[in-house]
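Dear colleagues,

As part of the handover before I leave the project, I'm documenting each prediction I ran so the next person doesn't have to rerun anything. This entry is a single chain, and its sequence is reproduced below.
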Amino acid sequence: MVTLGDLFDGAGAAAKTPVAARAGTSVMLSALDAQAAARRAGLDWPNAEGLRRIVVRAAGSPAAPAARGNVEVLTWARNLTAGELIQPQDLVWGKAAAAPADAPSDPDSIIGLAARRPLRAGASVGARDVAVAQVVKAGDILTLSFEDAGISLSLQAKAVSGGGVGETISAQNVTSKKVVQAVVVAPGQAVVGPAAAQLQNTRRIASR
């Protein structure tokens, strides 16, 4: 277990308060979660450095066996099933002979996404392992919204395909049966028209 005593000097009576479970020689924590845990235990940590992630390594643990290489990569801290959302504690830094071609350098680019398939603890993390979490599934009833030049309309539609926030899906107007392309903005909600085009353009720029 990782405790407040592992994170903060002078934690006093709160030193043994558990914060997270460590599956390997290191664990990655959200700084906000650590700050909240400290506050609940009566400790004040303002996080003046603006830290987002905290990596806790076991004292005296070797960096890595030579046979495993010396490239530092993100690895999975536990086994994950397809569809599970990636949390900070699911990622740990480890050593590998070589990094995958699509290995992320920033944990924030992975956290909050969903596993595409079952993932094995200890394996190197790759962008191909994850995808945007699907919040709309085929067959769901959606509210489609349209806004342009002061005009605001909404109607009910049925999702023909599924997708995550920011992704384009096909949706069928339940009245006219016409199928349109819409962009998911939240569970059960999607937009069409200029708002959809703007979101699609933003997504293309962000992916470059």
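Helices lie at 4-7, 31-40, 194-207. Residues 66-131 form a domain with the Type Iii Antifreeze Protein Isoform Hplc 12 fold (CATH 3.90.1210.10).

All the best with the project,
I.
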